[in-house]
Amino acid sequence: MAETQPRSAGATGAAARCRSWLLQGLSEQTARHPGPHGTPPAEAKGHRWYRVMCLTGVDYFSSLGYAPGIAVLAAGLLSPLATLVLIALTLFGALPVYRRVARRSPHGEGSIAMLERLLPWWTGKLLVLVLLGFAATDFIITITLSAADASAHIVENPYAPGWLHGENLWITLCLIGLLGAVFLKGFREAIGVAVPLVSVYLLLNLVVIAASAWRVATGPVVVGDWWHAMLGEHSSPLAMIGVALIVFPKLALGMSGFETGVAVMPQIKGDATDTYANPAGRIRDTRKLLTTAALIMSSFLLLSSLATVMLIPEGDFQSGGPANGRALAYLAHQELGEVFGTAYDVSTICILWFAGASALAGLLNLVPRFLPRYGMAPEWTRAVRPLVLVFMAIAVGITLYFDANVDRQSGAYATGVLVLMLSAALAVTVFARHSGDHRAMVGFGLITAVFLYTTVTNVIERPDGIKIAGLFIFAILVTSFASRIHRSFELRAEAVVFDRTAERFIDEAAARGPLRLIAHDPSVHTKSEYRAAEYRKREDTHLPGRRPVLFLEVVIRDSSDFTEDLAVRGSEAHGVRRLRVSGPTVPNTIAAVLMRLRDRTGEVPHAYFTWTEGHPVSHLLKFLVFGEGETAPVTREVLRRAEPDPARRPRVHVG
């Protein structure tokens, strides 16, 4: 027994230290985690738009590592034509949509927040939760797919040790683990790393494409062979266009950077005259960022598609082939030698790995941005490290499920990307309609239809994406509503403020002893009803006959909200004094006002209620959904949790 106690104490101390380390920074500030997609503090100066473009480019431009190979697998010899269709959708579809999104959400809220504002009550909240599921699919698959492609570049490098061949899965898992370790230690400002990383990567890609173009230009038979082979497979140009239109949705992952480009808007410096309400310079520069990135990516996608389909045998793109997931790296080694090819591999591995870092930072900022406002996240989700462990566990599971295969994951990735783009196009279309811009409404409506077709086609042909997204949506819905129920008995008020009339009523009533408040239905407001309510309370609860009373009335504005600043207004009608306040729920709002009254007057207030008729289960459901129900017991429970000392807890009387 003498040795058991120290071990137990040591274990307890280790557990406490581990918990303290995991929950370090448990506060609302976590929502402004300083990752690539974080919101900088007010005093931050920001960065020029082209530097921030490199930040979003680690996600967007890194898809050059695998997009050309996926295009050949999807469209074969027609991959350049299918890529042209994708470029047209990028420049004339996604780009105009996100330029509008940038104007509507200049603080990084993105298209999800736009749709939230369009739909009221629980409808908007549920839509946001579903879109968060697709966003999680996008970001998690970005992590796993990028790491898998990085492992392919490692394994296929001629200088790689022989024992690495065939070990793509374990290399991918190690890269994901390294990514998680960086975030567990702390992820600092990423722009300083992203700028040289993207610059070097694009420069090396330009060299590879130039060398490939030189070989094509000096060997006319290359173009001729490709052209004749393409004509031999397809009967006419119309048939080629038709096939390209059918298969181009499989290439949609080449548009992955637009939502990220809007999310990083708070990092852009803008003009000195910018204000929070009108950041005109930031909006202008974000549009420059989106346009420049789209033009660069479109050029590289088209040129790389032409180079890879003409210079690489089609069989090498298949699973296990030397060009699978690394088409441009294959050309770098073939056209410029092993030394340059290795340098290209190192650059590609770095940017693919850093694309995973960008995606993880996006997740760590996305979850605290929405879920805590809804009361749909447990307290520990405000800390970064537990979330990192959760996301890394999910990434490991996804990697094992897909066996670190780039091609098998591309469908899930494209699904997440396309659904977010579809939601953005829909939001912009609806906003154009509300603003009376019918020409823009028709144009964006057509873009929405194209994205809808692309999304549906991708889901039908590659259902893995919707399956993975469905799992994320289910998990988010279950955990969110469980958290909402668990947190339903919190005070849920950021602040309680009284106007001058309310302060006068409170001070005059408090001068005659503890405050006495009657909880009253604001829809019942005639003189006889007020008098009858006061008479019943005095009779049923033995309210002192000569003490002044205040009527406390709560108006529910939106019961789907969780927290809200409470503004209490005083008014007098029919000879009674009223304190009226709007809140998301009746009992939590009353409890918050009572606690604030206690702090203001220094005495414990008394609140008087009437029992509500009906089944307790139906009242509980009514409270959870509509914010009202059996008010008295819920108010008492909220007060019990908020104030553990019964002597200082506001009193609840029911008759």
Please describe the structure with a list of short key phrases separated by commas or semicolons:
655 residues, alpha/beta, 22 helices, elongated
Summarize the structure.
This protein is of the alpha/beta class and 655 residues long. It has helices spanning 4-22, 49-60, 67-75, 79-104, 110-118, 121-156, 168-185, 191-218, 220-233, 237-247, 258-263, 280-311, 327-374, 384-402, 406-434, 438-461, 464-486, 500-510, 527-541, 586-601, 616-626, 631-642; strands at residues 493-498, 516-520, 550-556, 564-573, 576-583, 606-609, 651-654. The longest helix has 48 residues, at 327-374.
Describe the structure.
The protein is of the alpha/beta class. 65% of the residues lie in helices and 7% in strands. A seven-stranded mixed beta sheet has the order 1-4-5-3-2-6-7, sandwiched between helices. Helix 5 (110-118) packs antiparallel against helix 6. The two termini are 57 Å apart.
Any idea what the shape is? elongated
Helix/strand/pairing category: alpha/beta
The main pleated sheet reads as: 7 strands, mixed
Q: What's the overall average pLDDT, rounded?
A: 80
Contiguous uncertain segments of 5+ residues? 1-7, 27-44
Q: What fraction, in percent, of the residue positions are helical?
A: 55-70%
N-to-C terminal Cα separation, in Å? 57 Å
Strand order of the largest sheet: 1-4-5-3-2-6-7
Query: Hey, roughly how much beta strand do the residues contain?
Result: 5-15%
Tally of helical runs: 22
Summarize the SSE layout with pairings.
Elements: H1 4-22, H2 49-60, H3 67-75, H4 79-104, H5 110-118, H6 121-156, H7 168-185, H8 191-218, H9 220-233, H10 237-247, H11 258-263, H12 280-311, H13 327-374, H14 384-402, H15 406-434, H16 438-461, H17 464-486, E1 493-498, H18 500-510, E2 516-520, H19 527-541, E3 550-556, E4 564-573, E5 576-583, H20 586-601, E6 606-609, H21 616-626, H22 631-642, E7 651-654
Parallel strand pairs: 1-4, 2-3, 2-6, 3-5, 6-7
Antiparallel strand pairs: 4-5
